[in-house]
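[job 0412] stage=fold_complex status=start
inputs:
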Amino acid sequence: MTSTKPAGQQASRQAAKAALPPRKHVLDLDDFSPEEISQILGTADVLSEVLSRPISKVPTLRGKTVLTFFLEPSTRTRASFERAAKALSADTINLSGTESSAKKGESLIDTARTMQAMGADIIIMRHSMSGAPYLLAQHTNLSVINAGDGWHAHPSQALLDLYTIREKFKKIAGLKVVIVGDVLHSRVARSNIWGLRKMGADVVLSSPPTLLPEEVLEAYAGELPGRLMTEPNLDAAVEGADVVMALRIQKERLAADGAMNLRDYILAYQVNEERMHRAKPTAMLMHPGPMNEGVEVSHVLAYSDRSLIETQVKNGVAVRMALLYRLVGASEVSA
Amino acid sequence: MKGSLLIRGGRVIDPASRLDAKADLYIKDGRIEAVQQGGGLAVPEGTASFDASGLVVSPGFVDLHAHLREPGQEHKETIATGTRAAAKGGFTTVCAMPNTVPAQDSRSTIEFVQSRAADTGAVRVLVVSAVSKGRAGKELVEMAELAKLGVVGYSDDGSPVGDAQMMRHALAFSRMLGLPIMDHCEDTALCHGGVMNEGRVATRLGLRGMPVAGEETMVARNLILSKLTGGHVHICHLSAAGSVEQVRRAKAQGIRVTAEATPHHLTLTDELVTAGAMYDTNTKVNPPLRTAADVEAVLQGLREGVIEAIATDHAPHAAEDKLCEYDQAAFGISGFETAMGSLLSLVHTGKLTFPVLIERLTLGPARIIAREKDGIGALRPGAPGDVAVTDPDLSWTVDAKAFLSKGKNSPLNGKTLKGKVVATVYGGALIYQEQRQATTRGR
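[job 0412] stage=fold_complex status=done
writing structure:
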């Protein structure tokens, strides 16, 4: 195979080949070093080129079986991982909550062991309960990728967010990233707090007090290049921001928990054009999706040239290819 | 000689008689016959004897709060297995909480438990009745009728008495009967869906928290209702610093309140949920493991006597109840067999004296259920011949698989503890003795 590679990709290829200890699981970004994150982003740079080819496939995972095991509804994350696995020539099996034996009372561990016995190598798991991927990591020999667990972590989303930010701003360190919305219930926020700070960005959480855990600063205390702050007033938070990342709001949860009236939420926390004017002129909007248009983000802003939402989705495939590559530890990418 | 035993040369700690000295202890026909300081007690020829040199001899421990699971959940525990595990932990009197299936809320269920305990129990089982029928919080049990059967208190444990008016009535009746209402203090709306302590660790792990306010608000309500009725409220498994402070102030005002704390709330913090195996379901307990500041406050309350009793809240579960997602796992720790070993860490680190520890395991709980008059929790002549013998310096590694309890759910599995009950005597009979060759002694 031949291709013309820009200089940036040559550098990324070198980063991708830098030696790092082998990794069996991707459960959160808390145990990733900045070097490892850089390496994955560099690998994604290389692999993104594969996706632009007429035949967008390389044999890296040929002979490997990747199981997507989603016990909670998902469209984009699941499709993205499946596309990534297939682009690396893996065999894929998809199992969802409604199809699995969990409905018949079989335990999570039993189901995973069954998949292991059938020859699965990597399990990509989404679960509504925090910590579920750790259970499989502890009780099976499979490599586990956490594709979102409860309120806890969504590491591949955070990595694709980092990739998208780096692609747009050519750096991550020194940027001010505001994360807006339901931090309490957000696995995206939790993983991004780790990832962004490790890569040197300052993170500001802006959230209604009822949706911001009181101990959040204490929970993420520690010596990292980037800082973590809270600012409940969104207008103040976005002053001078480089990125404003809106979180999905579950409207029914707002009412059920009595956390906030929806109209109040929209007035105080919707990211719209007016608020984006307070950020830097170059500032960009991000959102992990699926988005409630007109709630957490205004429709006009979501589809404006200040939005990176579609880019995030596009970048997700290359980043997830890089994660799969990192786990299998193939000797080289046939690119 | 049946039910007779000489225990020689141990350090005898009996808070009821304010004794802490090297002494011989003689049990005759199942009851304490004599305690002689300095040793050299003469006993009839042929009396079995136990050499307690270097060991601590105390009354058998009294546990106010244990789940024996029978009837209804015999796959988790039975009265037979639970009481054998209790004996291994040095407990000779255990109070069986009523969240069985069906609940201990009627003459038939309570007599069933008493009958099974008489037939299969290794140690004394006292029964705690439910407060409400089916523990459903709708209708009071026949409190007076059940008192005649010998229940030692009332509790809807596993759940609080949620309805304040019902709690008021229960306390008023219990005052008349001279028995405590033992409440699991939890505001279920504040704690709804919570699986661990609300705080730094829960935030980090993305688990729904149970705030200390969930306990404190219910403690406050109960103290107000106790003051109103004059009824004896007993706060079960107290875990929060704010609760300790409330009980302290209430006692100063003369409110009739007592409290218990568990070994795990005295020694473990919520950090354990991330230590070792992440999301270890063996750390899931209700009330949850709290912060170091809460642990210190509970310990201070125990030292002062604000908390009069240590209770295990022994809550055995089957493997499948814990080998699952943290959210779905059952609450509870199998606690009988590690209680003394974990509590002795407080003595070894100078946070608690041995006599105070023994008092909170014996006389303190016996007083709460008004059984000290029967000699339970004491070594005075005429008292039941119930004794725990502890080796405070024995180092051992917890192996949950080796528990006599059916419940292997222990967050201490694999941990090394210093100190262990090595023999238990019930009614003068040696019902448990440590296999010494399997362990090592040393400071």
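[job 0412] summary: Chain A touches chain B at residues 107-109, 127, 129-132, 134-135, 138-139, 149-153, 187, 190, 213, 215-216, 218-220 (CB under 8 Å).
[job 0412] exit 0
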